[in-house]
Specification:
Blueprint lengths: L2 H7 L3 E3 L9 E3 L12 H10 L31 H12 L5 H15 L14 H29 L20 H23 L4 H16 L13 H22 L5 H24 L1 H6 L5 H29 L15 H13 L3 H31 L6 H5 L3
Antiparallel strand pairs: 1-2
């Protein structure tokens, strides 16, 4: 029906442009028969022209095959040795090594402090022991990270997470079996080195090494991995806190225990757990889709933020409690210089649920632990050497 017909038959209908014979009309109300309709057969024809969508389950299977790489290189392209080195460097996640190295160094310094005296102003320090412990720890951490890549791939975790670490398999860079074999090889070498150095200092140190090895492997291995049953933060607290700090103390002191080492280990356990928790907060949505249960998923956003905040507060509260009483090393309060960065990470975790922002929070937490440990080690060394400082030149350069 044309606009001229509408004008003559319905007083409510007005021409959109009275000077033009356009078919576009405006009406406050129009009778039903005026509204143009499309036959249902036409809609069915249009629907039939749409491309079909095939839906497949995203659930992981036991079949292991290399996924298509995100960026396909030309067939004639061959990576250089430097490029392969960078790929494996990213896969073993070297930037996470401070989680283990810092408590190891702090425990060693705590064991060295009682050996300093006027008769021996430089104290007694077993460099070979600490070097062997560092080698064992680095091998275990790198092996655990590669094993984590493999088992996360099996469960379909981090397949679309651009912020997640590693990703050798997910990006199609390395075959899954090679990642697993290399990871198991590193774990085996780390276990051998740890076994050798622990045999000299008693069965308790051997037990600590065994617990560290089991946590490193079962953090992500098997269907009931620690990281999938909401025990990732607890395992991180124990390994990167008391176990490594006390273990390093025992390694330097000949197997003896110390309650002081336990107290100093608590901030590092809390900061390590906070780092892992921030990582899980970042990956909460992806983990939920992959049926990976973490505290971040179970607690929800509000309580996850509360847990992260509590871990930061406890870390600094322990240091204050150790430094304030009379006769304690007050200089360790210089670790509070990291407090402004902790406040930034704290407010960042409270303000956002964006994975990119939470990734930054996680990296900041890791940096806080590193700076925290370095400042603490400096404070302990200065506090210990200051009373015997005049005697050190004579010890170094005897007359």
């Amino acid at each position: 029906m044309t606009s001229e017909n509408l004008k003559n038959t319905d007083p409510n209908v007005k021409d959109a442009n009275p000077d033009n014979s356009s078919h576009v009309v405006m009406a406050d109300s129009v009778q039903a028969e005026v509204i143009p309709t499309i036959p249902i057969e036409s809609l069915e024809t249009i629907n039939a022209l749409q491309p079909e969508v095939s839906v497949h389950s995203v659930a992981s299977t036991e079949d292991v095959s290399a996924p298509a790489p995100l960026v396909v290189q030309p067939a004639e392209y061959h990576r250089t040795f430097k490029e392969w080195l960078q790929i494996w460097k990213d896969g073993v996640r070297l930037h996470y090594l401070p989680l283990g190295l810092m408590p190891l160094l702090v425990g060693s310094v705590l064991a060295w402090m009682p050996t300093v005296s006027p008769q021996n102003p430089l104290g007694r320090f077993h460099f070979l022991h600490i070097i062997a412990a560092i080698i064992a720890l680095v091998l275990l951490q790198m092996g655990a990270n590669l094993a984590n890549d493999y088992h996360d791939y099996l469960r379909g975790v981090d397949t679309s997470n651009a912020l997640g670490p590693g990703g050798l398999i997910q990006q199609g860079l390395i075959k899954p079996t090679r990642v697993l074999l290399f990871g198991l090889g590193l774990l085996g070498l780390g276990a051998v080195v740890g076994l050798i150095i622990s045999l000299t200092d008693g069965p308790l140190l051997l037990l600590f090494g065994l617990v560290t090895l089991l946590c490193a492997y079962f953090y992500s291995a098997t269907t009931r991995a620690l990281s999938t049953i909401a025990l990732g933060e607890l395992a991180s607290f124990l390994v990167f806190g008391p176990i490594l700090t006390i273990g390093a103390y025992m390694l330097q002191s000949g197997g003896s225990m110390s309650s002081l080492a336990l107290l100093y280990s608590l901030p590092f356990g809390c900061l390590a757990a906070a780092t892992i928790h921030a990582n899980n907060m970042r990956d909460a949505e992806d983990d939920q889709h992959a049926h990976k249960h973490t505290l971040a998923n179970l607690l929800g956003v509000r309580w996850s933020r509360a847990l992260y905040s509590l871990l930061l507060v406890v870390s600094y509260a322990v240091i204050v409690a150790l430094a304030v009483p009379h006769g304690t090393p007050h200089l360790i309060l210089i670790t509070l210089w990291t407090l402004p960065e902790a406040v930034i990470a704290f407010t960042g975790a409270l303000r956002t649920v964006s994975p990119a922002a939470l990734h930054l929070v996680m990296r900041q937490t890791l940096q806080i632990e590193t700076a925290f440990a370095i400042l603490l080690i400096i404070a302990l060394i200065i506090t210990t050497l200051f009373p015997v400082l005049p005697l050190i030149p004579a010890k170094i350069l005897p007359v």
